[in-house]
Amino acid sequence: MDDDPPLRPEDARTLRFLRGLVTVLTGTMIVGMAVLVVLFATRFPRAPAAPVLPGTITLPPGETARAVTMGTGWVAVVTADDEILILDPATGALRQRIAIAGP
Predict the structure, then answer these.
(1) Are residues 39 and 57 in the same domain?
(2) Cα separations in angstroms, 80 against 43, 64, 99
(3) Domain range enclosing 59
(4) How far apart are CA 58 and CA 79, in angstroms?
(5) What ranges in 1-103 are assigned the alpha helix state H?
(6) What is the pTM of this model?
(7) CA torsion 70→80→58→87, rounded to 10°?
(8) Buried b (16+ CB within 10 A) or exposed e, 59-96
(9) pLDDT in tens, 63-102
């Protein structure tokens, strides 16, 4: 009860060629994914170290913090009076006071 006409020889060759191309593409994709997994596993073996945050930061009297940022060996606090205070993270001592120029 098969109503499909038989394949011509050139059609059979084309189907074999396409089957080979699909097989090669599948293999290439599997190898590519394996390479990506290996690269991620070797290039990113652990999370970067988090910065050490000071336990407390004591601001000079009357100052209110609006923003805080950290760098290597310093903590910067932007105050409500539009100043940047550079503090030592270990001792909390004020290293520098920078006024922010207004518009």
Answers:
(1) no
(2) 43, 5, 11
(3) 52-103
(4) 13
(5) 9-43
(6) 0.51
(7) 40
(8) eeeeeeeeeeeeeeeebbbbbeeeeebebebeeeeeee
(9) 899 999 988 889 999 999 889 999 988 888 889 999 988 6
Which residue pairs, CB below 8 angstroms and at least 24 apart, start in 8-16?
none
Q: What is the pairing mode between strands 65-71 and 83-87? A: unpaired
Residue 99 makes CB contacts below 8 A (sequence gap 6+) with: 82, 83
For residues 79 and 63, membership in a common domain is answered with yes
pLDDT at 7 over 90: no
Beta bridge partners of 93: none
Both tokens assigned to 30: 């599997």
Two structure tokens written together for 102:
């207004």
Specify whether 56 is located in the same domain as 95: yes
Q: Same domain for 17 and 35?
A: yes
